[in-house]
Design goal:
alpha/beta, binds 6-O-phosphono-alpha-D-glucopyranose, 607 residues, globular, eight-stranded antiparallel beta sheet
Length: 607
């Protein structure tokens, strides 16, 4: 969480680029914002609680001067979101400014030590120890780079930082450990940021900093060193393949809506996976004696859907596990015979990385499915595959879910072939259906926006929703519930429908909206039974079902019709789409910003 951005420009004022960079990183957190710049040898800082658009006006960011600066957008971990706790933080003399993404675990003991040495602190953040440590190290006539190196060696925890000082106003020193940081070089300057979209307007040439590395940015470029021993590291620039348009809102009012509508395209990309990666991952999956699918949030729902697909198509038992529970639950048994397929859009989710770190230590095979080339997950995995959905900015993941399930389906199909679990005809048939997925989604998007708007108007006043599905549709139901929770703050339950009679049914009253996910397939007859149970208790039934499914239509208050011929195993992809739209329309009707839901962040890089 938190977004950091820095730039050193050859000419021109840096403040516009810093603001633009922060804006593009707001999906990482947006409770406070701050900028530090050096102008004529003086460090200036403006910061406050609130989103960039408000704080920028209030504090007149555009009046700040200088061609070098750093900016931060915050998602609070230590200390409430207020002006004092907003970044940048400074040393005692206000000459060293630091922005930080991550958590410094030993900040209490460092703070105590620094206070004993005479430093005084103003904030409640963990970050503030960093400028003070650097200040302390600079006392012996040590330069900013080396002082930062020394300071970093004392930190435990995770960080991506950028340091700016009036003492050496020509450079930004930045570093990372377990929080992402990418460098960029253009003709007019050098950049660092938490993520590529922030620097993409200026360059497509980037370098991903790795754990335990520090970089010094100047107008002429960058130098990289290892924090542990100061050894120089040479790494060439890479070219980013996607263009800026892909990471901008274009004509859509929100990123979330844009990303929902991009799904036919992202799914088409997702069908063009590189052969050798599919091959490699499948081979590893086949070899594992036990296979875990590990993810958080939406990625966890992809794992649940994936577990049904692997079982039914390839006869492979997999265990879907929430990342944050993995170590506690399987940490003492995971070992050399285990394979972990970590699923993470960002490739940077702390809990997911923690689960795989633990597994690697115990000699397990770690595989990755991610959207982010150069992410930590790609570096620590034995083999990885990219979901190919392009940048996703909306905090609520949408195209991530559909792309991940599509990739998992293709892996399962390949595995089924490898294991001889399907006939050639069955393989051909499933392959043909896979190719139809983008078209189905396109069709749904074309025809269901207006009906879903009307549905949202009808249910706008409801204070509780229940989402139910059987089999693989329980994953779709959970994803639908998550969208609603994330962006409308409406309490909602999601359960495998068969389990609803063991508890959830007790909260059903006359009129409670129950959303049923009912594709044609093995679970069709059973879901009718579950609908009847809820209906008997007065629930209003909203069903997502195949068009012309008269059995479901006959017992539902409202239905959203899906194209015919979608196999149940692939249904999470198209059936999730109306649920994404429903959550979106409800949020907009309630005057909420679906791109920036309260208390959430796109990328959770802290424990
Ligand atoms: C956060 C985001 C979710 C996302 C989850 C996992 O909670 O708000 O949208 O699904 O992290 O992210 P990952 O990048 O690991 O898929």
């Amino acid at each position: 969480m938190c977004g950091i951005f820095g730039c050193v420009l050859l000419k021109g004022s840096a403040v516009e680029q810093i603001q633009d960079g922060i804006k593009r990183l707001e999906y990482r957190g947006y409770d406070s914002v701050g900028i530090a710049m050096v102008d004529h040898g003086v460090l200036q800082i403006r910061k406050d609680a609130g989103k960039l658009s408000d704080v920028s006006k209030r504090l007149k960011f555009s009046e700040m001067r200088g061609s070098i600066g750093i900016g931060h957008t915050r998602w609070a971990t230590h200390g409430a979101p207020n002006m004092i706790n907003a970044h940048p933080h400074t040393d005692s003399n206000g000459r060293i400014a630091v922005i930080h993404n991550g958590v410094i675990e030993n900040f209490m003991e460092l703070k105590k030590e620094l206070i004993e040495k005479g430093h005084s602190f103003v904030s409640r953040t963990d970050t503030e120890v960093i400028p003070h440590l650097i200040e302390e190290e600079m006392k012996g006539d040590v330069g900013l780079r080396d002082a930062t190196l020394r300071a970093l060696r004392r930190l435990k925890g995770s960080y991506a930082i950028a340091v700016l000082s009036s003492l050496e106003p020509d450079k930004i020193v930045c570093a990372r450990h377990e929080s992402p940081l990418v460098l960029g070089v253009s003709k007019n300057g050098t950049y660092c940021a938490s993520d590529v979209p922030a620097i993409r307007p200026y360059t497509n040439k980037v370098v991903y900093l790795r754990n335990g590395e520090l970089a010094v940015l100047t107008v002429g470029g960058y130098e990289i060193m290892r924090v542990s021993d100061g050894a120089e590291i040479s790494r060439d620039l890479e070219e980013v393949s996607w263009d800026l348009e892909m990471a901008e809102k274009q004509e859509y009012p929100h990123y979330m809506l844009k990303e929902i509508y991009e799904q036919p395209t992202s799914l088409r990309y997702g069908l063009r996976l590189q052969e050798k990666y599919v091959e490699l991952i499948t081979t590893f999956l086949d070899r594992g004696k036990e296979v875990f699918l590990v993810g958080a949030g939406t990625s966890q729902h992809s794992c649940i859907a994936g577990s049904y697909i692997f079982a039914k198509l390839a006869r492979l038992t997999t265990y879907p596990v929430v990342s944050s529970e993995f170590v506690e639950r399987y940490g003492s048994t995971v070992g050399i015979d285990s394979t972990i397929l970590a699923v993470s859009q960002s490739g940077e989710t702390y809990d997911t990385l923690k689960a795989i770190d633990h597994s690697r230590m115990r000699a397990a095979t770690v595989l990755g499915l991610t959207n982010t080339v150069g992410s930590t997950l790609t570096r620590v995995s034995r083999a990885y595959i990219i979901q190919q959905s392009g940048p996703e900015i909306g905090v609520a993941a949408t195209k991530t879910f559909t792309s991940q399930v599509l990739v998992l389906s293709q892996l399962a199909l390949r595995l089924a072939r490898l294991r001889g679990k399907l006939s050639q005809d069955e393989i051909d048939e499933f392959e043909a259906k896979l190719k139809k997925v983008p078209g189905w989604v396109e069709n749904i998007l074309e025809r269901s926006r207006e009906p879903i708007k009307s549905l949202a108007e009808k249910y706008i006043g409801d204070k509780l929703f229940i989402f139910l599905g059987r089999g693989i549709s329980s994953a779709t139901a959970m994803e639908g519930r998550l969208k609603l929770l994330e962006i409308t703050y409406t309490p909602a339950l999601a359960y495998p429908a068969g389990e609803s009679k063991h508890g959830p049914i007790s909260i059903v009253e006359k009129g409670t909206p129950c959303v049923f996910v009912c594709p044609r397939g093995d679970t069709h007859a059973e879901i009718i039974g579950s609908i009847m149970e809820m209906k008997a208790r007065g629930a209003r039934i909203i069903s997502i079902c195949e068009e012309g499914d008269s059995e479901i239509e006959g017992i539902s208050d409202d239905t959203i019709g899906m194209p015919k011929g979608i196999p149940e195993l692939l249904s999470p992809i198209p059936y999730a789409v109306p649920l994404q739209l429903l959550a979106y329309e409800l949020a907009v009707l309630r005057g909420l910003d679906p791109d920036m839901p309260r208390n959430l962040a796109k990328s959770v890089t802290v424990p």
